[in-house]
User: Fold LYR motif-containing protein Cup1-like N-terminal domain-containing protein from Suillus fuscotomentosus.
Amino acid sequence: MKHRQQAIASVYRSYICEIRRLPHAYLRRVFRLKAEDGCRAALLTKCNERRTGKLKRTIQQLRAANNGNHQAFNRILDLAYGRVGRLRWELMEPLLSDPDVPLPPPIIPSKESSRPPVYSQELTALLTSGLSRRKRPLVPGDLSFPPILPERADPNSSDAQILGPFSKRREVNARWKYFGQEWKKVLPPLQISVLPSRKVGDQGSDLGTPTAVRKIGFDGTTVLEELVQLTTKPKNTSGAFLQRRWLRRRYQELLGRLPILTFISAQTKKPGGFSVSLAPNALRARSQGRSLSCATGEDVAWNQKASGEHVRH
Assistant:
């Protein structure tokens, strides 16, 4: 028992040593919490060799990142900002349902478990935008009738009239399978921002008011604003020896993997809704930049404003 505690204490000291070398305060806070949680879990687990091995791999990754390894630094940024790992799930989970929308009727009558998935407005915007997808964006028709369903699943199709109706159970399974595989290709936003109506006194609709916007992730913090600032003036506050230009490039690439989900309030003759954009100084990977829609002028104007001041929700 004593030997195990000493071994974990040694790992923790090495972990903290590398954390202190990280270039920015947010990264140091995130990985200090991960170090404490990981070492505490290793102490409470009898068979802790696997956990200790995982901690050592994380330390090696931090060391490589602090020494200027491009891939390792991108990996720790992805972990810290929810592009991968548990934080990614925590950012996406609220968007996978919509408590304000009535449940759709069951596909199989009297079978509650046969209800199809609900695509929230936020998730729909993310799925149909190329700026928030690892793959090509979907079209709205893909959500109402997934392309993995055969034409026979449409009771009005010629295939259904000739071959007979498609199995309802298979349809339920296909719809949920498609829902699961597609949302996992989405890059989650850190928060939902609000762009209020420009017209004074415009009440909009129920969905057009800021009160209808859900609070998720880093809402109420300045994490997004600080990240945008790091791409213009990357202050090296930890004493690490990474070049500022190199750091700025890494954060610009991170912004290319970080969509900004904005709710635009309803205006006269214009319903409210969600838009997806990127920060103006974001850099996208070549594989992501093909045949994808760009942010509108209105989105860019808002993001430029957001980079200089905290957006209130």
About this structure: The longest helix spans residues 25-44. Confidence is low (pLDDT under 50) at residues 200-211, 289-294, 306-313.
